[in-house]
Sequence to fold (226 residues):
Amino acid sequence: DGGITQSPKYLFRKEGQNVTLSCEQNLNHDAMYWYRQDPGQGLRLIYYSQIVNDFQKGDIAEGYSVSREKKESFPLTVTSAQKNPTAFYLCASSWDRGPDTQYFGPGTRLTVL
Amino acid sequence: AQSVSQHNHHVILSEAASLELGCNYSYGGTVNLFWYVQYPGQHLQLLLKYFSGDPLVKGIKGFEAEFIKSKFSFNLRKPSVQWSDTAEYFCAVNGPGRRALTFGSGTRLQVQP
Fold:
């Protein structure tokens, strides 16, 4: 069953704690992305990676970090520096050549208590 | 910087009514255009896309969209909506200078039986 998996589905964090969200894909896609979804704001790009061991900041990267050690994995860490981390986080992947469709995972809803 | 505007934030229709959701973008170059849909509790999934060729594109579930380059628009249409079309709809764009998607703020469609 090919696709993108994200875990956990729901995550609760105390203020001041770092937390890591998992994203795995078995589509053999080169590029992976993290977006944040807030009500009424659509999705905004946090980080993206076009190749293993390389990634670039998106529009709202402050307070987040990522790694891309394997092609299939692109974990996102929400650090204590993120001022308003409560949101729905979506991971996506695509090929990195020509126009292509991004496929999305089911998302992780993070709530900071 | 590129941006995407969705004019309708919340639309309420009765079953069998016709639907048109507006999407305008600002992007200096060749664009790829997408409509995604997020049904309650489900993944964000692709409804339709435009890369090149015929500006009238057909997607899943009877949806279609028309790319009008002179108006920087990519409006979504469906002749007759069903209760099952209740969802949030997102317009998105990317291009050669930016592989990640830029999303509009979304339109919440509520179809009443």
Notes: Chain B touches chain A through 25 residues (CB under 8 Å). The CA atoms of residues 54 and 82 of chain B lie 27 Å apart. Chain B is about 0% helix and 55% strand.
